[in-house]
Design brief:
Length: 318
């Protein structure tokens, strides 16, 4: 006679499942990141409106809030011993702040602060709401296209130093969109090249999530190099990871987060979508380590001291 199977212990009322806890963590992350992104974008739009309406008072343009101008100016000064004209002092301050943030937290600027990144995220959300299909870029093509960022960075710096001008500002999609010249001083005859570039970039970003960040942004190319020096990075534990690949799909810049390496690629923009989506506690963590330090075999790659952000440990209710 078969013995009856033991009765399951009922789940305590109000206790969340592992899936529900993960969805709640993802939702909380989205709210925090979108709040920061929209706040920064709102401040940039406010600065643009103020500049357009109070130009006589020398209110700075949104170009003064872009750190890439500091990169162009520094390179030109180092190579020609001359400073680029029309560089606002705040650009150099923002550039210094960005450098410090990269050394601490990698490309978090791109995932949390950059207004043009925010626009691309909004385009992706609109595409999902409209149920438009995603364009999948083959891995080999994706790897090749990512080098275009470095080509554009080199070209911009060389021409800026050769002409001692901010020539790229006439084509920069961030400046074209957020300067609001197209709204306050529309002049299609002179603005059409910049508007064409902006339209092509936005169209590409509608087809491929954050296409500008992945393939074209010169500042993103520079930050991906400096990211190797950052202290805080998303790191993966080979012992805790179960290979479920749930961390791969939410990455907005198409990084293979499940790749068996200790630290996620420096193309990471610090959005933490992969960390929130990870169902296994300790598999993906944001942790501190000195650049070049190798984790001990079998240990969590972060070293002995994990830092603030880690996914909640997922335990099925018993």
């Amino acid at each position: 006679m078969t013995s009856p199977s033991p009765a399951r212990t009922p789940r305590p009322a109000g206790r969340l499942t592992a899936y529900q806890r993960r969805m709640r963590a993802i939702g909380a992350l989205h709210h925090r990141r979108y709040a920061v992104q929209l706040t920064v974008a709102g401040l940039v739009v406010f600065a643009a409106v103020r500049h357009q309406r109070e130009s006589s008072s020398a209110a700075p343009s949104v170009d003064a809030l872009c750190p890439f101008g500091a990169v162009e100016s520094l390179w030109t000064w180092l190579t020609t011993d001359r400073l680029l004209p029309k560089i606002h002092p705040s650009t150099l301050i923002v550039g210094l702040g960005l450098l410090i943030s990269v050394l601490i937290a990698g490309n978090a600027f791109c995932g949390w602060i950059c207004p043009f990144g925010t626009v691309q995220d909004l385009l992706h959300r609109a595409k999902r709401a409209l149920h438009l299909p995603d364009l999948t870029v083959p891995p080999r093509v994706d790897r090749a296209l990512r080098y275009v960022r470095f080509v554009s960075l080199a070209a911009i710096l060389l021409v800026s130093a050769g002409t001692v001008t901010l020539w790229f500002s006439g084509f920069d999609p961030y400046l074209t969109l957020f300067s609001l010249h197209w709204l306050f001083e529309p002049d299609l005859a002179s603005m059409w090249p910049a508007l064409l570039v902006l339209g092509l970039v936005l169209a590409a970003s509608l087809l491929v999530e954050r296409a500008w960040c992945r393939y074209l942004c010169p500042l993103g190319g520079l930050l991906s190099v400096l990211g190797h020096l950052s202290i805080l990075r998303v790191r993966r534990s080979t012992t805790a990871c179960t290979g479920c690949n749930l961390c791969v799909k939410p990455c907005p810049v198409g990084i293979d987060v499940s790749k068996p390496v200790a630290a996620v690629s420096t193309d990471c923009i610090g959005c933490l979508e992969c960390v929130a989506a990870c169902p296994t506690g300790g598999a993906l963590v944001v942790s501190a380590a000195l650049p070049g330090r190798k984790p001990r075999p079998g240990a969590t790659p972060s070293g002995p001291v994990p830092v603030t952000i880690r996914p909640r440990r997922e335990r099925d209710a018993r």
